[in-house]
Amino acid sequence: MRARDKAAVSALRATLAALDNAEAVPVDEAALRGVALEHAPVGVGTTEAARRELSEREVEDVVRAEAAERLDVAEGLTAPAHADRAARLRAEAAVLLRLLDAPGSA
């Protein structure tokens, strides 16, 4: 990363965001609609909820999904004008797949 590998930085940032989203607490829409403003909890921390903890398998699934998404989009970019974008997406996918295949990552 010190060499400013743009493909690696881009892939890792997007994957960290996807992992962050996967850890979000699911919101029950029915519960949100049923609370009147005057009955809403008040005070510091009343809206805080513990985030989900992903298992190693779930983390791997998210990373694999991110890599697969990049490969799918790259495959669809067939026009010569999009060759650079397709190559960058393939490079990002390779970074993610290398991380999964690295020793000590499973």
Class from secondary-structure proportions: mainly alpha
The major pleated sheet works out as: none
N-to-C SSE string, H for helix and E for strand: HHHH
What's the assembly state of these chains? single chain
- Percent helix among the residues? 55-70%
List keywords for this structure.
58% helix; 106 residues; 0% strand; mainly alpha
Walk me through the structure.
With 106 residues, the chain is an all-alpha fold. It contains four helices and no strands. The protein has helices at residues 6-22, 29-33, 56-76, 83-101. Helix 3 (56-76) packs antiparallel against helix 4 (83-101). The longest helix has 21 residues, at 56-76. The radius of gyration is 19 Å and the shape is elongated.
Brief overview:
With 106 residues, the chain is mostly helical. The chain has four helices and no strands.
Topology:
Blueprint: H1 6-22, H2 29-33, H3 56-76, H4 83-101
Helix pairs in contact: 1-3, 1-4, 3-4
